[in-house]
Amino acid sequence: MLNKALQQFLKDVAWGDLDVLFIDLPPGTGDVQLTLIQNAQVDGAVIVSTPQDVAFLDAKKAIGMFGTVKVPVLGIVENMSSFICPGCGKETQIFGHGGVKAAALRMELPFLGEVPIDLAIREGGDSGKPFVAEHPHSPQTKVFQDMAATLKGMLKL
């Protein structure tokens, strides 16, 4: 069902003129990733992982798969890198920290940034209100903007 939905999404939506289309896929190397590569021009992949070693195993498989199908990995992001308490501002590294950056360096891939976990990111996704627009001065917004600028430069947009 997911493959059919992806094909319909790619072929039946009137996208107009796009500079970039980001598609958030489930982790790993499944049929959805292969369907996307077979049905669209994919100029690059951004790999996202949480800090735990076991989570990065899926990311590592995806990096290998994209290499096999000649899709460049533009960079790696550490998601949920920490939690910043909205009351006191204290940062807690719930899932560990820095493993994704260290792995990116070992693999000689660009490290794009660390995104702290924030309930408002999920709420914005659910409500359709972009987090960056709703929270323009948050640390997460700065990370998102920096990553976008880096990717824009890589893709020469």
Which consecutive residue ranges, at least 5 long each, have pLDDT under 50? none
Note the run of SSEs as H and E.
HHEHEEHEHHH
Question: How would a textbook summarize the main sheet?
Answer: 4 strands, mixed
**What is the straight-line distance between the termini?**
34 Å
**Helix content range:** 40-55%
- How many structural domains? 1
Indicate the structural class.
Answer: alpha/beta
Shape field? globular
CATH third-level topology:
Rossmann fold
CATH class: Alpha Beta
**Percent range for β-strand residues:** 15-25%
Mean pLDDT: 89
CATH homologous superfamily name?
P-loop containing nucleotide triphosphate hydrolases
Rg estimate, integer Å: 16 Å
Main features:
Rossmann fold; 7 helices; 157 residues; 4-stranded mixed β-sheet; globular; 17% strand; alpha/beta; 4 strands; 47% helix; single chain
Structural description of this entry:
This protein has helices spanning 2-12, 31-39, 53-68, 99-106, 119-127, 131-134, 139-155, and strands at 45-49, 73-84, 91-92, 111-117. Helix 1 (2-12) packs parallel to helix 2. Strands 1, 2, 3 and 4 form a 4-stranded mixed sheet that branches. The chain has 157 residues and is α/β, with parallel strands linked by helices.
Quick summary:
By secondary structure, the protein is an alpha/beta fold. The chain has a single domain, classed as Rossmann fold. 47% of the residues lie in helices and 17% in strands.
